[in-house]
Specification:
Two copies of one chain form a homodimer.
Chain A (H helix, E strand, L loop, with lengths): L5 E6 L3 E7 L2 H6 L7 E3 L2 H10 L4 E4 L2 H11 L4 E4 L6 H12 L3 E2 L11 E7 L5 E6 L13 H6 E7 L6 H16 L3 E5 L3 H6 L1 H10 L3 E5 H8 L4 H8 L5 E5 L5 E5 L2 E5 L13 H14 L4 H16 L10 H7 L1
Parallel strand pairs in A: 1-5, 1-9, 2-7, 3-8, 5-6, 9-10, 10-11, 11-12
Antiparallel strand pairs in A: 2-4, 7-8, 12-13, 13-14
Helix pairs in contact in A: 3-11, 9-10, 11-12
């Protein structure tokens, strides 16, 4: 049994990011789709690393970023994800624990190395990702700690989990345990191409198994195959208890039954790197939600956290988010 | 009796615009509040005209612009407003009739000259207005043609009517006739400073006598004295049947009971002059509404019409709006 109550347990791919600055030509040369996440194999990862300039390594992973952000806001967070028992895996584990997130998933003793994501930041502050899933593919149902999920108010799952086959089973198991314990399940759609890869399953999940949905405009319009934000908004209403739809500089729209909030983006001096914007929005939002705040306030907190992370390089918060949230 | 059915009858100040280009220094020198409409007397109008460069005269007036736009989209529109029997008054009458709008209000035979509005367009495409109400103050209940109002699906009233005292009585009378005939009443809040001048009365109107409300973000937050768009949105829901809230480049948010639409702005190549943006949004929206279109489509049509008028100088449409609306 878990003795301390948890706000959120996040389940996702455990990834170390390698951030490099490059121009659009680099993306073209390596067939990376700008603004999106492309899955790459070990050989392609090797050729990308060989071609690029010096990078900065920092722990990443979408749900992991969200849990680190939640902890930085003062929330109680845990993370489930698979690294290898290699150097990068140790870095990932050290970082997320140092951020105040409980992380107990045992590392894989053999197989592929710890997952890494090459994050290319172009001069327009957009980020483009090439992910080698590595040890993430080893995540399976056995890694889902029943007590941890039962103890958390919300189980937060990233859509990217649908890419490695075993992780999908872990996702399904966590969702069942959460609901069996009267807890809520949140899903981030992760990426429009991820939605394209798994559209039918995601639509079924959202309609039947997800209580709280996070999606940006490209993801939600892809999910419902509609061509305007408003058309997607009309679709999602009633499909899950809460939907938080992010729109970059246009802010976010949050719906719960008949309740709809249209909340502005938090002002940012200069957008340096958009990596982690959606992850940190979810962190702020979940922080508010687990404290019983109103939806407009949850959206505001999400905006504050997202604004912090896009103001610097990297997908983990650097400033004191709990102080920012209180003063903003 | 009016023999032809009407879509909308608009009631407003009948004004001829004089458009000049000037920099922000001109606004400061003449104590004009940027982006807003300031009421000026005849003497101040004279000194402004003396100081400014050559201007372009074109018929204006907020509700009049909306009726001209509605006619340009293919709608059946009428206008009630007061000019003087002078040269500018004849220009106004000729222009609005040429636009296809029925206009029968008899001109004043004496008193102040036809109203004029000095529209200063600054290099950032913002417009700042100084209005001399002139003959508009002569508009009164007798000018409201009962049959015309009874024949129109919607009576559209501009908030600016609250400035000249007699016009307010005309407004009240039109609202009563419309409702007595099972018709709907629409109100545009016109300007945040206009809202400030008449806040209590506007709030009572919106709560009790208005079916369709048009307001931009500054106006609706001023009406409810709240500091965010979302807070205003929560207030306005349920206060009138339909509220269409415009947000410049952020598009518009439209609510009707539990129904909420968040609709993007129509793309514009270059914003030349924002004069008339709100007026033409209302035109497109009312065109859709009187044809039984869904609210999202009404908002889209409003966006198409607004995008046309901000792409050139002046507050009346120049392109074929009905064609634009069909193809957009």
């Amino acid at each position: 049994m878990t003795d301390t109550p948890l706000d959120v347990v996040g389940i996702g791919n455990a990834i170390v990011d390698v951030l490099v600055h490059a121009d659009d030509g680099f993306l073209d040369a390596h067939a990376l789709t700008k603004g999106a996440m492309t899955l790459i194999d070990e050989a392609r990862a090797g050729s990308l690393y060989a071609d690029m300039g010096p990078g900065v390594e920092m722990s990443g992973g979408s749900a992991a970023n969200t849990m680190a952000g939640l902890a930085a806001m003062g929330g109680r967070a845990a993370f489930i994800g698979k690294v290898r028992d290699d150097q990068l895996g140790a870095v990932f584990a050290d970082d997320i624990r140092a951020a105040g997130v409980r992380f107990d998933t045992p590392p894989a003793a053999d197989g592929a190395p710890t997952a890494r994501c090459l994050v290319v930041v172009t001069p327009d502050a957009q980020r483009t990702m090439g992910t080698f899933l590595g040890a993430s593919v080893e995540l399976g149902p056995d890694d889902v700690d029943d007590d941890l999920v039962a103890a958390a108010q919300i189980t937060y799952l990233e859509g990217y989990l649908w890419d490695p086959p075993g992780a999908k089973q872990a996702f399904r198991k966590a969702q069942r345990i959460a609901h069996a314990n009267g807890r809520r399940v949140a899903l981030s759609l992760s990426d429009p191409f991820c939605v394209e890869r798994h559209r039918a399953e995601f639509a079924e999940l959202v309609a039947a198994h997800v209580d709280i949905l996070f999606a940006n405009e490209a993801e939600i319009t892809s999910l419902y195959e509609v061509d305007s934000f408003d058309a997607a908004l009309q679709q999602v209403r009633g499909h899950c208890e809460v939907a938080a739809l992010t729109r970059s500089e246009k802010g976010s729209v949050v719906v719960r039954g008949g309740e709809v909030h249209v909340v502005d983006a938090h002002p940012v001096d200069a957008v340096i790197d958009t990596t982690g914007a959606g992850d940190l929005y979810a962190a702020g939002f979940l922080y508010g939600l687990t404290r019983g705040r109103g939806l407009a306030e949850c959206a505001r907190l999400g905006g504050v956290a997202a604004a912090e992370v896009i103001g610097h390089i990297g997908a983990r918060a650097q400033a004191d988010l709990s102080r920012l949230a209180a003063s903003a």
